[in-house]
Amino acid sequence: MTALDTVIESRGAVAPRDPHRPFWTMRRRDHLTGYLFIAPQLAGVVLFVLVPVGLGIWYSLNEWNIFRGELTFVGGDNYAALLTDPQLPAVLGATAIFSLGIVVLNIAAGLGLAVLLNRRFRGVTIFRTIFFSPVIVSVVAWTLVWGFLLQDNGGINALLAVFGIDGPNWLLSGDTAMISVIVTQVIRSVGVNMVLFLAALQGVPSELYEAARIDGAGPGRIFLRITLPLISPTLMLTAVITIVGSLQAFANVAVLTGGGPGLSTTVLVYYVFQQAFEFNDIGYGSTLALMLLTFVMLLTMLQWQLRRKWVFYEE
Fold this sequence. Notes:
Elements: H1 3-10, H2 26-60, E1 62-65, E2 70-73, H3 77-84, H4 88-117, H5 124-132, H6 139-149, H7 155-162, H8 174-202, H9 206-214, H10 219-230, H11 232-248, H12 251-256, H13 268-278, H14 282-310
Antiparallel strand pairs: 1-2
Helix pairs in contact: 2-14, 3-14, 4-8, 4-11, 8-11, 11-14, 13-14
């Protein structure tokens, strides 16, 4: 290869075809190497994302009788059933309350813990470990323990009885059941947001805090004017992953309440499970799953579009 060919190829220009030129040029080898590097990830996306979504769309257009092994095409009947499902409004309402509670409490508690633990004092590492440790505990084991604690004669009511308070049966009343599911989920997952916020806080230059104090700014003003803008990229990240995680939370509801009492804690992902695997209506369950997927995509896209208004460093 001549020097001229090398320059033309490096600039992406189309050079005249040389019959003596080798096929495996440096450019083609680099392209092949790049494709090989992304091949495992691409295969994972195809096998575990695109194929399941495609099958979900196909199943939503059919009525599948598992026991008879019959797959009957019904077109848009399952989508029309969404409009006439009497339980769906209650399920969507429970999903909204659950997600809102998870997002608000998780982000607020994670940021608060990060601010408290972003200081140098004896034993700070121990406290960080304690608050993060529930993240690595099995979801089922965590939920089973809380299920015993929240019973009528469980540990929570025993603790309240010490102070003369007669606690309710937390999991058998609609209001307290939803609160119990939200709080147990937040306690288990808040450690992830805490670590993310802690890393962001440690990246804020200390010179900015010193300059603000010299100018007479108080702690509240420093937090609002300096800390929050500088950690806003992390705030957006935690908001996205927390919202998506809240819409996909299943084990906590399934083990603690089973969606009850009534439909008070039946979130959409658990309703998908009920329709598809308890009532064996795979077609309608797939339709509900696609609706859940649509909600997740729309909320993520909305947050991504709003990033320009509240995320620092974005143009």
